[in-house]
Amino acid sequence: MATTTWEYATVPLIVHATKAILDQWGQDGWELVQVLQSETGLVAYLKRPVGEK
Q1: What 3-state class would DSSP assign to 23?
Q2: What is the pTM of this model?
Q3: Residue 27 carries which DSSP code?
Q4: So what's the pLDDT on residue 20?
């Protein structure tokens, strides 16, 4: 059985455009893992299997 290898991205979120930002990343094959509050605002953590898109 093959093990999935992941790549990760962190994306700053603009509150009034959160859905549009996440939809765009989702269309590129990224899955939202978590959203956290940072010192500068919201940050989305995403992952997708290596080799997709």
Answers
A1: helix
A2: 0.85
A3: H
A4: 97
